Hints:
The protein is of the alpha/beta class. It is built from four helices and eleven strands.
Amino acid sequence: MKFxxxxxxxxxxxxxxxxxxxxxxxxxxxxxxDRDLKGADxxxxxxxxxxxxxxxxxxxxxxxxxxDAVAEFASDGGLVLGICNGFQVLCEAGLLPGALLPNTSLRxxxxxxxxxxxxxxxxxxxxxxxxxxxxxxxTTGRYxxxxxxxxxxxxxxxxxxxxSQDDIAGVCNEQGNVFGLMPHPEHAxxxxxxxxxxxxxxxxxxxxxxxxxxxx
Length: 216
């Protein structure tokens, strides 16, 4: 299988996501002005500061030509993973419910956090452990939704870094094929970083796509 990683002006974790994805399968970068997903079996919207986070985080990136292709890909059941700024972009684009608001501290946070798996039976979490250790780094990561949402990851008790509603760290859409999370799994794929738990999210996607390929 192959991952496609979208690069916007201002993306700063696209190469990290690319290298993390390449630990489990093929992967290549996708330019924000193109509508061609280059045959990707799963798409990653990485972290960073797309378009400088002007207006509102993710508000401009949602209008990039590549997002039209991503929306169509998602509507056809394709897997889409949004990390940090990518989570914000997916919410702005209406591909995920809710919104990301400024941290209650109104400060940038950067630290390792413990996460609890809320749903192990999804394409993104099927090989994940019950608890994960993954870093966060953001100023606008407080998740809020007025409606019920499908939660995949929660911050462990006492670990919520931003005041997120119900300790929510990551959610997916109703169809279960679009997933956004604020922690950065691409920064937890090597023992030298102190954790390889993030790699299990990429491995889960590979396993799901592989199973679908066998069925078809």
